[in-house]
Specification:
Layout: E1 2-6, H1 9-26, E2 31-34, H2 41-54, E3 62-65, E4 67-69, H3 80-87, E5 99-100, H4 109-122, E6 128-131, E7 153-156, H5 159-165, E8 178-181, H6 184-188, E9 192-197, H7 203-211, E10 229-234, H8 244-253
Parallel strand pairs: 1-10, 2-3, 2-6, 3-5, 6-9, 9-10
Antiparallel strand pairs: 4-8, 7-8
The structure holds 2-amino-2-deoxy-6-O-phosphono-alpha-D-glucopyranose.
Length: 260
């Protein structure tokens, strides 16, 4: 796992965006995995800026979102459909028919999940999956004790996640209890993984993900099993890392490293 520590949240977003842009520039019809939450906002802002000012072209890009709340219509301001449209899709040129977000309102979740998995395969698989991390160490909505081989499915949210996300809703009771989420196994099949995390409240989860054992209790720790996972964090989120000097040393020594 490569760990890149930025001074600030905005810088974290900028370096993560460089990696996304590199994938698109190398493969204009790349398939991107998208994440919601407050953390990727700086990354999306920077991608939008690159699109407007530098001509970063999304016209052949396809996207698959990680997850969606069950029961919220796409017009609900807290639905992930709405979030993605407002914060990213409406500012770039991805064709609407190339955008896939799990449905939180389907009448048949099992069939929808199977279809979603098949769509990912039919589109050639995900080239780069963007991820955030929950304070309990989850990725997407793969709560603690999720199988590390899990696929897209309906999931009951942990109380911790409901508490964390209550800040976005009027009342805690308004937070959905169920979500549809890509599985850890689905996520691990992406060719590259990019995880962003910021703030002190993520420091423990970040340390467990990078330096702890691989465990279903911290589903983000499954990134240790992936051959190409990069973690972009800010200073605050790096506070509990034991090997921080090594991660910084690797980045400093990078320009001189032998080329393969
Ligand atoms: C939710 C999402 C995750 C996200 C997490 C953290 O649980 N399903 O994909 O990583 O929130 O969100 P935030 O970035 O707002 O802390």
């Amino acid at each position: 796992m490569e760990v890149i520590i930025a001074e600030t949240y905005e810088q974290m977003g900028k370096s993560a965006a460089q990696m996304v842009a590199q994938v698109i520039n190398t493969k204009p019809n790349a398939v991107l995995g998208m994440a919601t939450g407050s953390t990727p906002l700086a990354l999306y802002r920077e991608l939008v800026r690159m699109h407007r000012e530098e001509g970063l072209d999304f016209s052949q890009v396809t996207t698959f979102n990680l997850d969606e709340y069950v029961g919220l219509p796409v017009t609900h301001p807290q639905s992930y459909h709405y979030f993605m449209h407002e914060n990213f899709f409406k500012h770039v040129n991805i064709p609407a028919q190339h955008i896939y977000i799990p449905s939180g309102t389907t009448s048949n979740y099992e069939a929808f999940c199977a279809w979603f998995e098949q769509r990912i395969l039919d589109c050639g698989g995900i080239d780069l999956q963007i991820l955030g991390i929950g304070s309990d160490g989850h990725i997407a909505f793969n709560e603690p004790t999720s199988s590390l081989s899990s696929r897209t499915r309906l999931k009951t949210l942990a109380k911790q996640t409901i508490d964390d996300n209550a800040r976005f809703f009027d009342k805690r009771e308004d937070v959905p209890i169920y979500a549809i989420t890509m599985g850890v196994g689905t996520i691990l099949e992406a060719r590259k993984l990019l995880l962003v995390a910021n703030g002190k409240n993520k420091a423990a989860a970040v340390a467990a993900m990078i330096e702890g054992p691989v465990t279903g209790m911290i589903t983000a720790s499954a990134l240790q099993l992936h051959p190409s996972a990069t973690v972009f964090i800010d200073k605050d989120a790096s506070g509990e890392l034991k090997m921080i000097d090594y991660y910084n040393w690797i980045q400093q020594m990078k320009p001189g490293a032998p080329k393969h």
